[in-house]
Design a protein that fits this description.
Blueprint lengths: L1 E9 L5 H14 L2 E6 L8 H5 L3 E7 L5 H12 L3 E5 H5 L6 H7 L1 E5 L6 E7 L13 E5 L3 E4 L4 E8 L12 E11 L2 E6 L5 H4 L2 H23 L15
Parallel strand pairs: 1-2, 1-3, 3-4, 4-11
Antiparallel strand pairs: 5-8, 6-7, 6-9, 9-10, 10-11
């Protein structure tokens, strides 16, 4: 049976308990053994993390220590997938550039707040994660993110929707769904999910389900192919 660890906490406005339970139910329906932890110390044991197929952070505006983020860095590099949504993954730890580097982006603003209606545009042909899905509207926070140029973009949203200082730059498409690699590990993210009800919508829920399953495959591939993350190691200072 595949194993997943959900680590939840931080700002309660993002409903970490409700979101974690929703994602747990999705994964259990896919035959995952799911553990939920309310402490970042769940990240301390690198050997335990390496035995997982998937790590899911649901922790907004917190602080993570080097001792906690280090095992996540290594386990992902060894092939353990990471998947998450909204601020629970890409506004988790504003002081940790190491975390942001792994995840592929970081929240900087949501012009208009939590009651903005905007369109999510699927990038056709970009990934099986969005295959067959159609563009859709959401009424929620529209995340403006600073992103890693290495990400593979699966869906975008057009800014500005709400007029503000950023509008002077003209129209830009900001990623909503993306994937990337960290060593042997797969990373999946969607900016949808301000509250659990957004992830209960049919298309956002399906994107999240497919994204988690996609990310969880990287450990199996690494094991079956005998891959070793030492291929990517360096003695140079990285952080």
């Amino acid at each position: 049976m595949r194993k997943a660890l959900i680590v939840r906490g931080g700002w309660t406005g993002h409903q970490p308990v409700e979101v974690s339970e929703l994602l747990r139910d999705i994964l259990q329906a896919e035959d995952f053994d799911v553990e939920i932890s309310d402490t970042l110390d769940a990240f301390l044991d690198v050997d335990k993390l390496r035995a997982l197929d998937l790590m899911i952070p649901i922790w907004t505006m917190g602080k993570i220590t080097k001792e906690q983020v280090g095992p996540v860095t290594q386990a992902a590099a060894d092939g353990v997938g990471i998947a998450g949504c909204h601020g629970g993954m890409c506004d988790a730890f504003r002081d940790s550039v190491q975390w942001q580097f792994i995840m592929g982006g970081n929240w900087v603003s949501h012009p208009g707040g939590g009651d903005v209606e905007y369109r999510v545009n699927i990038r056709k042909g970009s990934s099986p994660i969005v295959e067959g899905l159609k563009d859709f509207n959401v009424k929620s926070e529209q995340y403006y993110l600073h992103v890693d140029p290495a990400i593979e973009v699966l869906a975008t949203t057009r800014f500005p929707t709400v007029n503000w200082y950023h509008s002077a730059n003209g129209a830009v498409d900001v990623p909503v769904v993306w994937t990337k690699r960290w060593g042997l590990g797969r990373v999946f993210y969607t900016s949808l999910g301000h509250h659990a009800d957004i992830l209960e919508m049919e298309t956002p829920r399906e994107i999240m389900r497919r994204g988690m399953l996609w990310a969880a495959e990287s450990r199996r591939i690494a094991v079956e192919q005998g891959l070793d993350s030492s291929l990517y190691k360096s003695e140079k200072q990285m952080f």
